[in-house]
Each structure stands twice: as C-alpha cells, then as structure tokens.
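Session log. Operator J.P. requested a structure for one protein chain; no other inputs attached. Running the standard single-chain path with token output.
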Amino acid sequence: MKKLNVIFYREENEKVLVGQLAESRNRIYFEYDPAFLAAPPWLSPFKLPPKPGLHEHKDRNFGPIFGLFDDSLPDGWGLTLMDRFFRKQGINVAKLSILDRLAFLASSTMGALTYEPAMSYDDGNYASGKFDLHLLSEQSRKIMEGQTDTVLPQLMRAGGSPGGARPKILVGINKDRMISGENDLPQNFEHWIIKFNSKNDLPDSGAVEFAYSLMARMGGIEMSETRIFETKSGDRFFGIKRFDRMDNRRFHVHTLGNMLHVNFRIPSMDYEELFKVIRILTENHQETLRGFRQMIFNLLANNRDDHVKNFAFMMDDSQEWKLTPAYDLTFSDGPGGEHSMTLLGEGRSPGKNEIVQLGKRAGLTTVEINRCLDQVIQAVNAWPDHARAANVTNKTATLIKSVIQRNLKA
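Structure written below.
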C-alpha cells in the first residue's frame, strides 16, 4: 500500500497535516487527520467535506483521484514534461501511480497543498546556468512538436507544475533578475507565470493575451498584474503575477471543475450552474457580479475556452471563499466553434437576451445587469486601442475585431 501525507502549507513556519492519501489495489483512499478535524477549513466542501473515517474515491468517471488533489497536478503540458523526465530516469511511466506524481511534485505544487514524503531523484543540478527564456521556449516548442525527448532540468522544475495545455513556466522576478519559481523565493522576488506559444496559437498570442488583460480590466474584471516579457532574440511572452502566492505565503485554490468533479475536457456545464456555486460558496452578491462580468467578457471577446478549470475559488486566511482573479482570458475559437460553458443551453451564439435572462435568475437587478453590460461592451469596443498598446499585429487585430463586432450584434 502506498501512502502520502497531505500538508496545508501556508508558509514555512505554518504547516498543518490535513490527512493521508493511500492507494491499495488501484483504489484511492483519504482520511483526515484527527487534529485537523478539530477546527477544519473546508478545503473541498462539495466532494470531500471534513469528516472522520476513510473516504474512498469512487468517482472514476471524473478521474483517478479526488478533485481536491487533482488541482495539485498539472494537465497536458506538465504531464508531458513529467513523463519525459521519468523516462530519462529509466522509470516505467506505465507503472507510476497518481500518488507517485504527487510525491514527485511535493512542495512545488500550485496552491497551498503539498505532499510528503517527496520522491527522491537526480534533478540534474537544475539551478545551475542562466535562466534563458528563449532557450526554454525553443525547447518547449521542440517537445510539443516531438522533435526531442530531452527535457532541460530548468524547464522540468519551472514548467512541471502549472495546469493547462500551453507550455508555461513558473519564475521569480526581481526587477530585471529572473530565477526559477516553483518553490519559495528569496526576499524581494515575486511569483509569476510566463506562457510560451504552442503550435496552434496565433503567432503573436502573447501580445493578444496581454491586450485581453488590458481590455478585461477596463471592463471591470479583476486580474493580477500582467506584462510582456521580451528577449534579445525578439520573443514576446505573456506573463501574469500569481494570485496563489503573496511573497511566499500560499493560498488554497480549488477550480470549479475539480470542486464539483466535472471533467474539464468534456463541455457539460452551463453558466447558470457556475452562479449557483458562487452563491452557495461565497454567500456574497459582489462575487456574483464579478462572475457575471467575466461571463459577459468571455461571450463578447470570444474567449470560448471558458471551461470549468478556467474558473476557480480561493480561500483567504479567515477561511472565506471568493472567486480568484480572472485568468486565461484570450481569443479562442473553443471546441467545435462553441463555448466550453453554455449560457442557458446555448453554446454557439449566446446573445444579450440570454445574458439578461441569466442575470435575473442569478439575483441581479436590471440596473446591475445593464451596468455590467455597458462596462464590458465599452471595453471590448476599444479592442483596437488595446491591440495597439500591446503591439498586436494588424492582421491579428483585424481578425479579432471582426469577431468581436459579430458578437456585439448577437
């Protein structure tokens, strides 16, 4: 039987044993530690409430492990790096368990859950050498295109934790200095994520996502700080400051999909269900307004990759839940040309009528609905200004403008 301790890691001097994961005969179990249950934060209120006794993960249609711990695991890109690294170490990937992968990540996870004991391995002295964005992006491209089996140790450590399909890395930034950022950082460094292009992206996807962040803020949407990282080779990469870190203090984050055990790869949720979760979890009308603005933005700005892991909730120090700042806002055609999350059942061309109807169902007043609509419409109408500010190419800016104008007429 394999066992793994789950640690709620707020910062170095504030770690709490949550409980123990175990695997036996291909079945996953979890048991909360009795001391944790004395005054527990509800880390996963819908699927793994803090109760004594052994909890077995039976929802195999969702995935191999409870959603609470699945949020500690990377998706396509990070798993690709992990598998390449294991093969280089002579490890049979087919025999790895989900607990092995969590043990490999150990304390380099996103959010505030970490895992012990950590898997021991040869890291190839990853910290040595200059942290070169251009080199790491080029190797990421070669890995995605199947041109190499080699994974630079720096790329493995910095790029192995984040979720999502696009290549990305965790970095620490202090003015012009950049270091790997998968764990705690030296004083005066900030935690950031930098994204690289993938084969199916627009050639200036970094500039587009930066322009979308400017447009979203104008629309009243809360986002972390964003910027473009440029290299001497002419690369322009999108970066966003992490909201699950403040200095080295960690915050617990739980994605909507994993909170409800909904597979993000299969479009199956409606925005109406998102607002039900917001009301139940936060009991805060302002959070409903935040989610409503983001929904309008996704619809009008054509961010159709609005799946259930692109919405998340964060727990603060008082154990209150709120929506995280928005992330992964960019131009996207979505699966089959439709939104991943439907609006009152409509995925291809939801319009203002559906927006107003759902706003009323979510408990918003007519004044609030119109205020949110007007603010977001004004922001997306200013797309050419945002595109110029981000140096998006004329070809891409024109393409996106035509799609936005079509959405505004719906």
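Operator note: The first helix runs from residue 67 to 70.
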